[in-house]
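Hi team,

Filling in the usual template for the complex we talked about on Friday. All components are listed, including any nucleic acid strands or ligand strings, so the model treats them as one assembly.

SUBMITTER: L.P.
PURPOSE: interface mapping
COMPONENTS: four
RESIDUES: 308
SEQUENCES:
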Amino acid sequence: MSQTHLKIGELAKACGVSDQAVRLYERLGLLKPVAKTSKGYRLYDAASVEALRFIKQAQRSGFTLEEIGALLHTDIRDEGACAAVKALLDRKLYALTERLVELQGVKDVLHGLRQACDGEPGPVCPAFLRLCTPHCAVPDPNGARLLHEVNHED
Amino acid sequence: MSQTHLKIGELAKACGVSDQAVRLYERLGLLKPVAKTSKGYRLYDAASVEALRFIKQAQRSGFTLEEIGALLHTDIRDEGACAAVKALLDRKLYALTERLVELQGVKDVLHGLRQACDGEPGPVCPAFLRLCTPHCAVPDPNGARLLHEVNHED
DNA sequence: CTTGAGCTTGTACCTGGGTATAAGCCTTAA
DNA sequence: TTAAGGCTTATACCCAGGTACAAGCTCAAG
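RESULT (copied from the run log):
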């Protein structure tokens, strides 16, 4: 009985998530413990670690938990379901490609701004701040639930 | 008195956002109307359109509204604030670069999966589904507030 | 055997970024 | 002039994806 079994805390730590998150994923149907002890402790194995890492990776990649669940739930011998997975992959690939293009564009823009920022030590800093100047509002302590700590230098 | 002024609905429509979102941005200090009518109607101009589009673009690029607010609030003639902006840009550039690399990796992985999906019309579909098989949980109608409609084919 | 860390379930709350609704005033076209 | 639609404020709610806390059970080290 080699100790391949992990308890929830060990699994969580191994994957850099909280134990509560792991239980959440289970409730959402994403990751089931491989067993439970007689006292109800969840037990996981090395494949669970892989699976959880996959979940986090997929999540970072723009899949929602619901989509990940759909992927994980696909009945492998169901042609139609398999087709649905393919369709999902295609959609995600497309979205990912678009996003890559957009982010690359933004990166270029930011890079340009950053350069401009360095280039001119005059009174007016980056070009794009011209955009803001007539538009930025006061921090409005009234309804501003957010932005509370942004410029706390009064 | 050329009609350069827009009312909130016109601005919103021009930028593909809701009027409520525009008011939200105002409360958060991101976008102030250039004027108000005697009856309290918000008025905007062409630069507001640019600004709002900038906000949306920055948002899509991974800036939070809070960060956008910080950018917009920077006092242009304050050296320190300007430095803060530079730092923010640097951080975002870095994050963006990392994210680009990660997404590209994911894209490659998905692409591979998609190929595998097509390649083998056997009983076992994409390789990565092996990950799931021992782990995917039942849809657990108990606590599952999400995933409610995922596989409604019982 | 006790004590503290770790596990259980359950419920409540949080954050970001909104949307929905209400109650009422304004504007405009018919 | 009146009715529709747009605007105002204010408050409530929604969603995803968690976190926090409570009350109680369990395990392991000293």
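MY TAKE: Chain A touches chain B through 72 residues (CB under 8 Å). Confidence is low (pLDDT under 50) at residues 122-154 of chain A.

Thanks, L.
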